[in-house]
TrEMBL record:
Record note on quaternary structure: Homotetramer.
UniProt protein name: Glucose-1-phosphate adenylyltransferase
Family statement: Belongs to the bacterial/plant glucose-1-phosphate adenylyltransferase family.
Organism: Paracoccus aestuariivivens
GO MF annotation, one: glucose-1-phosphate adenylyltransferase activity
PROSITE patterns linked: ADP_GLC_PYROPHOSPH_2
Domain Nucleotidyl transferase: 13-281
Length: 419
């Protein structure tokens, strides 16, 4: 039986935030994927952290590895409101060879293993393993209650996806009770859900364990020289085969507006990143960032409101079906279906159409930019045209399979040097 009160008070969240995200190419040259900006003012990791806080979890650890400086700085500045005197903690755990001088984090499970003593110090009953690189809103309390009620060894968060799309995921075969009977990594013929032959259950990379159970399992795995020390490759298949693994359907714990679809995005490619950001400019976006009941916390910079100036023909500061963040100055620029992050400055006669512009970008006069992602801090030169000639764009910039052009300062510098 589940005791009265929120189980999340007796749980901790362990966020895995060490992966580079190589499919984002130059966007992760300077930062790890969870530190990539998203949605105008937040970063990707803010969603997992906000879900934890909004669910009632006040003990959080973040394991970092690849190019973690911007992520660590963001967490120190934006997530520094935890109060130790209230038994609240947010610890950042960089790979630091704490167990062996020969190894950094060797896998997702090893990242927890190397910090067993820190988790022990939290004195928790349950641990929720989270990926720090997905966009979604979820109440972990609901998943945790299912885990306790079912007496599972592990409960795995699962997306409902069309069978035709499931081959790119780790897929769960389940029985009528939701018990996982097999775990298949990117199967050619994904198993269907028992109650819906057109859909499959795909792993979200979210796992709930009793800490005592997981602790013992991690120590056994650490001693196995044949293991890759990874949850998805090693621990989860072993539990499915020998123990009790239960599927938790994201539909039941997704936080969303009434009638809205269950929203979960992996923005791990340039196309997916651009599309998810641009979709926020829709009249009613699937992801509600305006929900005061489930806010997405972040490092809220102290900047002035956005400003729009000039009102002349072809030189009018205007934004249509767009999101413009604080500190932006739109000076005589036409902006359509675009998202501007903090302190973007644009100049006269420029046009931005379906543009995702990361913080601190300057767009000089007469630039025309369509269907682009512009990295933070970039200075767009006067008269630059991107998005009208794919072959010309591909000479200097990265053009995605769906025609989205990524622009970084390094690319612009190389272009300038060759002209």
């Amino acid at each position: 039986m589940v005791e009265n009160g929120r189980l999340t008070r007796r749980a901790m969240a362990f966020v895995l935030a060490g992966g580079r995200g190589s499919r984002l190419y130059e966007l992760t040259d300077r930062r790890v994927k969870p530190a990539v900006y998203f949605g105008g003012k937040t970063r990707i990791i803010d969603f997992a952290l906000s879900n934890a806080v909004n669910s009632g979890i006040r003990k959080i650890a973040i394991a970092t590895q690849y190019k973690a400086h911007s992520l660590i700085r963001h967490c120190q500045r934006g997530w520094n409101f935890f109060r130790p005197e209230r038994n609240e903690f947010l610890d950042i755990l960089p790979a630091s060879q704490r167990v062996s001088e020969e190894h950094w984090y060797r896998g997702t499970a090893d990242a927890v293993t190397q910090n067993i003593d820190i988790v022990d110090s939290y004195d928790v009953d349950y641990i929720i393993i989270l990926a720090g690189d997905h966009i979604y809103k979820m109440d972990y309390e609901i998943m945790l209650r299912q885990h306790v009620q079912s007496r599972a060894d592990v409960t795995i968060g699962c997306l409902t996806v069309p069978r035709a799309d499931a081959s790119s995921f780790g897929v769960m075969a389940v029985d009528e009770t939701g018990r996982i009977t097999s775990f298949l990594e990117k199967p050619a013929d994904p198993p269907a859900m028992p109650d819906d032959p057109a859909h499959s259950l795909a792993s979200m990379g979210i796992y709930v364990f009793n800490w005592a159970f997981l602790r013992e399992l991690l120590l056994e795995d650490a001693a196995d020289a044949e293991s890759s020390h990874d949850f998805g490759n090693d621990l989860i298949p072993d539990i499915v085969a020998k123990g009790k693994a239960m599927a938790h359907r994201f539909d039941t714990s997704c936080v969303r507006d009434e009638g809205a679809p269950a929203y979960w995005k992996d923005v791990g490619t340039i196309d997916a990143f651009w599309q998810a950001n641009i979709a926020l400019t829709d009249f009613i976006p699937d992801l509600n960032l305006w929900d005061r009941e489930w806010p997405i916390w972040t490092n809220a910079l102290s900047v002035p409101p956005a400003k729009f100036i000039h009102d002349e023909k072809d030189r009018r500061g205007v934004a249509i079906s767009s999101m413009v963040s604080g500190g932006c100055i739109v000076s005589g620029t036409e902006i359509r279906n675009s998202l501007l992050f903090t302190e973007v400055h644009t100049n006269s006669y420029a046009v931005l159409d379906h543009a995702v512009v990361l913080p601190y970008v300057t767009v000089h006069r007469s630039a025309r930019l369509r269907k682009v992602v512009i990295d933070g801090g970039v200075v767009i030169p006067e008269g630059l045209v991107v998005g009208e000639d794919p072959l010309e764009d591909a000479k200097w910039f990265r053009v995605s399979p769906r025609g989205v052009t990524l622009i970084t300062q390094t690319m612009l510098d190389k272009r300038a040097a060759s002209l």
